[in-house]
Amino acid sequence: MLNIKDLTIKFGGLVAVNELSFEINQGEIFGLIGPNGAGKTTCFNMISGSLKPTSGKIELDNENITGLPMYKINEKGIARTYQNINLFGNMTAMENCLVGQHSEMNSGLFSSVLRTSKQRQEEKEAKEKALEVLDFVGISDRVNDISVSLSYGEQRLLEIARALVSNPKLILLDEPAAGMNLTEKNNLMNLILKIRERGVTVLVVEHDMKFIMNLVDRICVLNYGSELATGLPEDIQTNPDVIEAYLGGS
Ligand SMILES: Nc1ncnc2c1ncn2[C@@H]1O[C@H](COP(=O)(O)OP(=O)(O)OP(=O)(O)O)[C@@H](O)[C@H]1O
Ligand SMILES: [Mg+2]
Asked: Does ligand 1 come within 6 angstroms of the Cβ of 38?
């Protein structure tokens, strides 16, 4: 489904991602791991369209999406969450989800002014969709609470809900378990499995090794922007290069 080929980005003299290639199959839960500064978030930024690669190619279902603007890539079916929570703090959970749906609403300015029945119908459907995803991630009791009043774990779930609102084929989760306690992490793992059951393919960055190894089908390991290894969790865990990169040899 997603085909990354020789993806490279340079910031001045720093090659943050260097000729990275991997493929993700439809229905897969795919992990991207690596030490701090390895280039994982930069990779997400290129796939989701917030950074343009210096060279290389990104294909979604055989269509070249390299360098398209973020809203276009979202329309093509890729949604993401952020490593640093990126919600509108003074808006409710529902409102944060409605903001995510603008590209889905089709009625133009003219009908907005007149509030046509088409627009009222779209608003109704957008609200229903938001309620569905908020319930799906397990925070239906927080629908009308402003997002800063949600716990850290709930805010992470709200970010996932907001990403799901656009009906993506592929969701990118950047450290979704960061700051969660063990119970929240277990619930999150079940939620990610449920996301796959919905028909959404998952690419996840996470530092918690137990979490990632138990969750994903395959893993790509990045180190200093380059691919160190790609494979099954059990092979990655015993790969000497990976152990060296994480533990410094001993
Ligand atoms: N916009 C930018 N301009 C300049 N350098 C950048 C930019 N974005 C990222 N970098 C650099 O690129 C490298 C990779 O950063 P990135 O955030 O992708 O790492 P990461 O693997 O997500 O790390 P972490 O696990 O700490 O989140 C780092 O050296 C970072 O400082
Ligand atoms: Mg990061």
From this structure: yes
CA–centroid distance, residue 9 to ligand 2 (Å): 15
Domains held by the chain: number = 2
CB 41 within 8 A of CB 174: yes
Residues 161 and 88 in one domain: yes
Spatial CA neighbour of 34 closest among 214, 207, 247, 237: 207
In this predicted structure, which of 61-65, 100-104, 185-189, 200-204 has the lowest mean pLDDT? 100-104
Query: Per-residue pLDDT averaged across 124-139, rounded?
Result: 96
Decide if 30 contacts 240 (C-beta within 8 A): no
Together in a domain, 235 and 125? no
Q: Residue 134: CA atoms inside 13 Å, Cβ hemisphere, count?
A: 24
Find out whether the beta carbon of 16 lies less than 6 Å from any atom of ligand 1.
Answer: yes
- Does residue 11's CB lie within 6 angstroms of at least one atom of ligand 1? yes
Q: Say whether pTM exceeds 0.85.
A: yes
- Ligand 1, atom 1, lies closest to the CA of 11
In a domain, 193, yes or no: no
Structure tokens at 18: 């260097």
Answer whether 106's CB lies under 8 Å from 198's CB: no
pLDDT digits (tens, 9 = 90+) for 194-214: 999 999 999 999 999 999 999
pLDDT at 248: 76
The pLDDT value recorded for residue 106 is: 54
Does residue 191 lie within any of the structural domains? no
- Residue 111's domain spans which residues? 84-167
